Amino acid sequence: MKILAFETTCDETSAAVMTGQALRSNVVFSQIKLHRKYSGVVPELASRAHLEKIPFVLSGALGAAGIKLPLKQGAVDAVAFSRGPGLPGALLVGRVAAETAAELSGAPLIGVNHLEGHLLACEFENGRAVRRLEFPLAALIVSGGHTEIWHARGYGDYKVMGRTRDDAAGEAFDKVAKLLGLPYPGGPEVEKWARRAEGHGPVFPRPFMAGTWDFSFSGLKTAVSYYLAKKTGASTHDLPAAEKALVCRAFQDAAVETLVKKTADAARALGLKRIAVGGGVSSNGALRGAFGALEGFEVRFSHRSFCSDNAAMIALCALRRLEAGKFANSLRVAPDLARPGWKTKG
Prior knowledge:
The chain is of the alpha/beta class. The protein has 2 domains: about 1-130 and about 305-325, 2-Layer Sandwich (Nucleotidyltransferase, domain 5); about 135-305, 2-Layer Sandwich (Nucleotidyltransferase, domain 5). The protein has helices at about 30-35, 45-65, 90-105, 115-120, 170-180, 185-195, 220-230, 240-270, 285-290, 310-325, and strands at about 1-5, 10-20, 20-30, 80-85, 110-115, 125, 130, 135-140, 145-155, 155-165, 275-280, 300. The strands form 3 sheets. A 5-stranded mixed sheet has the order 3-2-1-4-5, sandwiched between helices. The longest helix has 29 residues, at about 240-270.
């Protein structure tokens, strides 16, 4: 089974090829430099960048897998793409590229949920999908656009137990970084500055939202903004380096404790001993350390190279569904192949 996959949900343009369990190629073009001056992703610019780069990304992925262009009948056995959730224009670019590849190769077209990809990315080890997840488990999907806890009962069998009601965790990292004058993307910068912190600093609230497994990070972001206003007279980044490091550590501590505690509480309530964590924020070292310190759980993370958006995880989603017979019929004629606001069932 040879699968060609596309990922264009936000600001990474990616194409990958899998043969069986082996990842033959995974080419990713990042738009970070394009969006950095805006301190966040600009949807229209992201869509244009996808359109410009996807031919080169596709060519690189196919070439590395030994597949020649133009695609011919039988060149691949299936074509997969991120159907959503994501930015509408960005999703459209991936959809059209996938439809074209499917038409040229005569392969079935498979649209998958981007968030499931972040979960299944935990299965990659040295370029092979050999660390199969053991179900049931509690899954935390934590990224720039999403923060959700799932009860994962099997491949494609997920129930959302909680999700953010406002900002996603990664978005909060980016906004706090902007307040402090740190470059985009904010997550790695906040983590880097937090490691420099020495001594005692502020303590920010843990937005646990008692009685629910939902998240809310807007109040935590606001607490940082108010603290900076008191320190500097306005919500600016005019802080000495030592104090800036303390603010980063305090914010990160609050965000990490919230993520870990709510996920562990949900797992305990469901009687689960296994936890899997995926998404861009899952590369954060403090988050990994906090989950690693949990007692009584087996915690699985994806390798850092697969935490951010990539087409390899989309190919793997399609593979697991094909193995389970979940895509017996082509989705070629589905009227809503791209679904920007697609949500996993609650």
